[in-house]
User: What shape does this take?
Amino acid sequence: MHALADRRQKRRRWRVYGYSRWSRYHLGAHGYQNQKAEPQDDLRHSRIDLHSHDGRRKPGKGFCETPLDDIFRQLTGKLDGCTAIRTLPSINDRTRYNSPLYMASPRYALVAYVKSPVGEFVENLRRELHPALPHLAAHLTILPPRPIQGTENAALQMLARICGQTEPFEVTLDGMESFVPTTPTVYIRVAHDASRLRELHDQLNTQTLAFAEEWPYTPHLTIVKMPTEQAAEQALQIARERWRQYSGTRRIMLDRLIFVREDAQNCWVDLAPVPLGGTLVMP
Assistant: This one.
């Protein structure tokens, strides 16, 4: 009687842990050890499935579904019926941005492209100072890069509402400066009507596009970001000399802004034009 009771108790214990008699035999025959998950530094184990008699997954005594089953099913579209133990990477600082479960949020910005002669001057000067950089169109930044709190469509609607109430205006470029020691960036400062840019920036930095920016907003036209402070100082001296030699117009008319998204490092994609004092044209 005691032996029979022990066998019944052992069978109940195996059922509680999700193993059928055949699964127990199969796991033992193939050398699988303790099925209890033991978290490690980089992996968090989850037992997803056990073999059935015909090699396919069957619900019941031999199948124990865990909360991670739903995650794995979303990643692969199925559960693996041929693997007794399944491991999924935990999300830590090293894997977070490469994980399909935790992709970094894309960043967005609002800019005004400068296509006048001064814009051509800036692009040529950038190639001279840092030839290895990829091409980047000359632009004034209205909203620096940020994530959005909602959808792209909601952000565009807000931009259309605020920018539609703002009449086009003109700004004038002034001296060549750098952000050293904050960043090794060389830029042209906006002088005349810089206050209009600050006002527009403050109006747009709200709701869907609200963001706590790292530095105070400074209206400027970026020339180049150099790898070091010393390189930036040298680039600044060259840029000032080229700027003194430049004889074209230094005025920029702002009548259309562009909402952009960062799809890769140093790669920005235009999403939609945002006219000042006009109606948004949805893409």
Q: What stands out?
A: The chain has two domains: 2-98, 108-275.
